[in-house]
Amino acid sequence: MTDSPISTPAPGPDAGTGNILRLAAAQALAGANSTVLFATGAVVGNMLAPSPVLATLPISIYVVGMTACAIPAGFVARRHGRQAVFMIGTGSGVVTGLLSTLAVLAGSFWLFCLAAFFGGAYAAVVFTFRFAAADCVGPDRRARALSAVMAGGVASGVIGPQLVTHTMNLWPPTLFAATFLAQAAVAALSAVILAGVRLPRPTAQDASGGRPLATILRQPRFVTAVVCGAVSYLLMNFLMTSAPLAMRLCGLGQEDANLGLQWHVIAMYGPSFFTGRWIARFGASRVVAAGLALTAAAAATGLAGVDVAHFWVTLILLGLGWNLGFLGASALVLECHRPEERTRVQAFNDFAVFGCVALGSFSSGGLLAGYGWDAVLRISFAPVLVAAAALAWSAMRRGGEARPRTA
Question: What is the pLDDT of residue 8?
Answer without folding.
Answer: 41
